[in-house]
TrEMBL record:
GO cellular component: membrane
Keyword Ribosomal protein: no
SUPFAM superfamilies found in the cross-reference section: Calcium ATPase, transduction domain A, Calcium ATPase, transmembrane domain M, HAD-like, Metal cation-transporting ATPase, ATP-binding domain N
One function term, GO molecular function aspect: P-type calcium transporter activity
Main localization category: membrane
NCBIfam families per record: ATPase_P-type
Name of the protein this chain belongs to: P-type Ca(2+) transporter
Keywords: ATP-binding, Calcium, Calcium transport, Ion transport, Magnesium, Membrane, Nucleotide-binding, Phosphoprotein, Translocase, Transmembrane, Transmembrane helix, Transport
Membrane topology classification: Multi-pass membrane protein
Positions of the Cation-transporting P-type ATPase N-terminal domain: 7-81
Subcellular location, record wording: Membrane
Taxonomy, superkingdom: Eukaryota
Length: 676
C-alpha cells in the first residue's frame, strides 16, 4: 500500500483509486474482493473477548481484606466440620454467614462489569446493515460487513456511512455529513473530493473523508472505502475503551493497607494467645487436644477481629453510586471507579452533547415591526431542544401569539418550513422528539412550529394537538398552502439554498443562507400589515446597516450565534426560465430578493451545567473543556456556563489541537496547567 492509501486525504482521487487497484466505473471484481477480504477480514468491529466469568469471579476475591475473611471462613468451616459438637448447626453458622457475604459482594461486582461491557459493545449499533456497492460494473446491495477497502459505495440522505472512506464524486450540489458521533462537532460538515494539504491533519481537517457510523444529512455522493472494521475511527474508539486498564483506586489502596496491617496484628495476637496458653494444653486432654483447643480460640479471636461487614458495606455503597450514574448514561466498568470520583481534582469534559444538548436551536430572531420604517424588532426564543413549544420575548416581555403580532415572523416561519429538507418526528416509545435531517434545518423546523399561525382557529387547534401531531402541524399547514416545484441545493460558493413554490398560479422563490450573503442580494424588505401581508419597501442603507450590526452582534462575543437570513422573491416567473442543472446560475436567480427576517442559532448549553460547574469549583475540582468544535464556539459556550468571564481574555487559556501539536513538551506541560 502506497502513501495515497495510507493518507488518502492528501492524495487525488485518481491516486487513491490506483493505490487500491479499483476502477471507478467498474468497482472491484470477485477475485479482488476475495483477496482483500482475506487480508482485512469482515467490516465489523471485532467483538471483544471480554473477561471470562471465572476470572471476573476470581477478581472479586483479590482484595486483601476479602482474602483474610475468606481464609478465616475456610478455617472456621473446617474446624466446625471436624469438631464433635452437640449443636453442629451453630458451629457452622458463622463461617456460612461470612461466605454468603463474600458471595453477595462478588455477585454485585460481576454483574456491574458485565453490564459495562454490554454498554461498550453498543457502539456497534452505529454500523449500517446494508450498502449500495459497485462491483464488476453493477450496483448491488450487500451487507455492510462484506465491504472491503477499494469498494465504491453510494451514500445519500439519511444513510449511515458503512466504513471510513474517501469522497470520490459528489452527485448533488453539496454533501453534508453529521459526524458528531466521532468528532463532537455540533454542525453538519461539508465534504468535497478535493485533496487537503494540511500537514498532520486532525479528523476535522479531513474534509474529503467520511467516517464509519456518521450520517449523511444532505446530498448524495460516491465514495471509496479506505478502512474497515477495527481500522476505522469508530473501531479505534471501541478499542480504546475496551483496552482500558484498571488502576488501583485510593480507597482500594487504603483497604489493602488496612488489610495487610490487620492481618499482621491478628497473626501476632493469635500466636501470642496460643503461646501464652502452652502450659494449659494438658488440662484439655493432652498436648495435641490442648493445642487444637487453643488454636480454635485463636481462630475465633481472628474472626471476631475481622470486620466482616466492611467489604459488603463498601460494595453496596459503590453499587448505589454506580446505579445513580447509570441513570445518567455513564458507563462504569469497575465498581471502585465510582469511589475515584470522590478523589477527582480535574475533570476533562467533552462539549457537544455533554455540556450542550447536541441540538441546534434558534435563540434569537429579528423582523420588521408591522411596517414601521427602520423598526427592526428582536425577539428571544425559549427552548434548547427539539420540543416544538417555546415562548417568545421582546424586550423581556412575553409575546402572545407571535405569528399574529408580527406578520413578517409568520412569513419567516413559512420560509423556514418550506426551504427545508428535514423532518421532526415524535417517538411514542421514548416520548421524545427526534430529528430526520441536518441539525440546522431541524432547528428551523422547530422554530417554525414555535411561531405558530396567524389563523387563530388553526393555531388553537395546534396548541391542543397531541405531541405526535404537534411535531408537524405548521409544516402540514404550509405544505398545504404551497406547492413545491423545485429545489436549488445549498452550495459553498453561494452559501444559500432556495425552493421554487407555487400558490394560486404564481411562482415564488424562497431563500435561506448565510446572513451577510443573502442580505447583499436583497433590494427590498418585507414590512407586512394585516391589510397588506405582502407589503415591501426598498431596503435603505440605514436599514441594511442596522441588520448588518445585528448580525455582527449575534455572531460575536458572548452570543456567538450562527446567523441565517430568510428572504423571498415574489412573482419569480415561469419554471421554464430556470435551469436547475447548471448550479452556477443559481446565484443569479437568488437576486433582487425581499429580506424577510434573521435567525440566530446555536447548540445551547444544558441548563444544569452552570450549577454543576459551581459545585465543582466549590469542591476544588478544576474543569477543562475538550471538544472537536470550533475554538470560537467552544469559548462562547464556556462563557455561557461560567467557565470564562464575559470579558475575560482567553489567550493562554484556550488552545486548538494544531497549537498543541506544535508545542514542545515543556510548553504542553504549561498549557495543561493553565488550560480550561
Amino acid at each position: 500500500m502506497g502513501a495515497a492509501v495510507e493518507s488518502p486525504w492528501g492524495a487525488s482521487v485518481e491516486d487513491v483509486l490506483a493505490g487500491l487497484g479499483v476502477d471507478r466505473d467498474m468497482g472491484l471484481d470477485k477475485e479482488g474482493v476475495e483477496r482483500l477480504q482475506a487480508r482485512y477480514g469482515r467490516n465489523e468491529i471485532e467483538q471483544s473477548r471480554g473477561t471470562p466469568l471465572w476470572r471476573l469471579i476470581l477478581e472479586q476475591f483479590q482484595d486483601q481484606l476479602v482474602m483474610i475473611l475468606l481464609a478465616a471462613a475456610v478455617v472456621s468451616l473446617v474446624l466446625a466440620l471436624v469438631e464433635e459438637s452437640e449443636d453442629q448447626l451453630a458451629a457452622l453458622f458463622e463461617p456460612l454467614v461470612i461466605l454468603l457475604i463474600l458471595m453477595a459482594n462478588a455477585t454485585v461486582g460481576v454483574l456491574q462489569e458485565q453490564n459495562a461491557e454490554k454498554a461498550i459493545e453498543a457502539l456497534k449499533e452505529y454500523a449500517p446493515e446494508t450498502a449500495s456497492v459497485l462491483r464488476e460494473g453493477k450496483t448491488v446491495v450487500l451487507k455492510a460487513v462484506d465491504l472491503v477497502p477499494g469498494d465504491i459505495v453510494e451514500i445519500g440522505v439519511g444513510m449511515r456511512v458503512p466504513a471510513d472512506a474517501r469522497v470520490v464524486e459528489i452527485l448533488a450540489t453539496v454533501l453534508l455529513v453529521d459526524q458528531s458521533i466521532v468528532t463532537g462537532e455540533s454542525r453538519a460538515v461539508s465534504k468535497s473530493p478535493t485533496p487537503i494539504g494540511v500537514p498532520r491533519p486532525v479528523i476535522q481537517d479531513k474534509s474529503n473523508m467520511v467516517f464509519s457510523g456518521t450520517t449523511v444529512v444532505r446530498g448524495k455522493a460516491r465514495i471509496v472505502i479506505t478502512a474497515t472494521g477495527g481500522n476505522t475511527e469508530m473501531g479505534k474508539i471501541h478499542a480504546n475503551i475496551s483496552e482500558e486498564q484498571e488502576a488501583m483506586t485510593p480507597l482500594r489502596r487504603k483497604l489493602d493497607e488496612f488489610g495487610q496491617f490487620l492481618s499482621k496484628v491478628i497473626l501476632v495476637i493469635c500466636i501470642l494467645v496460643w503461646l501464652v496458653n502452652v502450659g494449659n494444653f494438658k488440662i484439655h486432654g493432652g498436648w495435641a487436644s490442648g493445642a487444637i483447643y487453643y488454636f480454635k480460640i485463636a481462630v475465633a479471636l481472628a474472626v471476631a477481629a475481622i470486620p466482616e461487614g466492611l467489604p459488603a458495606v463498601v460494595t453496596t455503597c459503590l453499587a448505589l453510586g454506580t446505579k445513580s450514574m447509570a441513570k445518567k448514561n455513564a458507563i462504569v466498568r469497575h465498581l471502585p471507579s465510582v469511589e475515584t470520583l470522590g478523589c477527582t481534582t480535574v475533570i476533562c469534559s467533552d462539549k457537544t452533547g455533554t455540556l450542550t444538548t447536541n441540538v441546534m436551536s434558534v435563540q434569537r430572531c429579528a423582523v420588521m415591526d408591522n411596517g414601521k420604517k427602520g423598526a427592526l424588532v428582536e425577539l428571544e426564543v425559549e427552548g434548547g431542544d427539539m420540543t416544538p413549544v417555546g415562548e417568545f420575548h421582546c424586550e423581556s416581555k412575553l409575546v402572545e401569539r407571535p405569528a399574529s403580532q408580527f406578520p413578517a415572523l409568520e412569513m419567516a416561519a413559512c420560509i423556514s418550513t418550506l426551504c427545508n429538507d428535514s423532518h421532526l418526528i415524535y417517538n411514542n416509545e421514548r416520548r421524545t422528539y427526534e430529528k430526520v435531517g441536518e441539525g440546522t434545518e431541524v432547528a428551523l423546523t422547530v422554530f417554525a412550529e414555535k411561531v405558530g399561525l396567524s389563523d387563530q382557529k388553526a393555531d388553537d387547534l395546534r396548541r391542543r394537538s397531541r405531541p405526535l401531531d404537534g411535531a408537524t402541524f405548521c409544516r402540514s399547514y404550509w405544505v398545504g398552502q404551497f406547492n413545491k416545484r423545485a429545489t436549488m441545493e445549498f452550495s459553498r460558493d453561494r452559501k444559500s439554498m432556495s425552493v421554487l413554490v407555487e400558490k394560486e398560479g404564481k411562482n415564488h422563490l424562497l431563500v435561506k443562507g448565510a446572513a451577510e450573503v443573502v442580505l447583499a442580494r436583497c433590494a427590498l424588505i418585507l414590512t407586512p400589515t394585516k391589510d397588506d401581508p405582502h407589503k415591501a419597501i426598498p431596503l435603505t442603507n440605514e436599514t441594511r446597516a442596522e441588520i448588518s450590526g445585528k448580525i455582527e452582534q449575534w455572531s460575536g462575543g458572548l452570543l456567538s450565534l450562527r446567523c441565517l437570513a430568510l428572504a423571498m422573491r415574489e412573482a419569480a416567473g415561469d419554471i421554464s426560465h430556470f435551469d436547475f442543472v447548471d448550479s452556477s446560475k443559481f446565484a443569479s436567480y437568488e437576486s433582487n430578493l425581499t429580506f424577510v427576517g434573521l435567525v440566530g442559532m446555536l447548540d445551547p448549553p444544558r441548563p444544569e451545567v452552570r450549577k454543576a460547574l459551581d459545585d465543582c469549583k466549590a469542591a476544588g475540582i478544576r474543569v477543562v473543556v475538550i471538544t472537536g468544535d470550533n475554538i470560537n464556539t467552544a469559548t462562547s459556550i464556556s462563557r455561557k456556563i461560567g467557565l470564562f468571564g464575559d470579558d475575560e481574555d482567553t489567550q493562554g487559556l484556550a488552545f486548538t489541537g494544531q497549537e498543541l501539536d506544535q508545542m514542545n513538551l515543556q510548553q504542553r506541560r504549561e498549557c495543561i496547567r493553565t488550560a480550561r
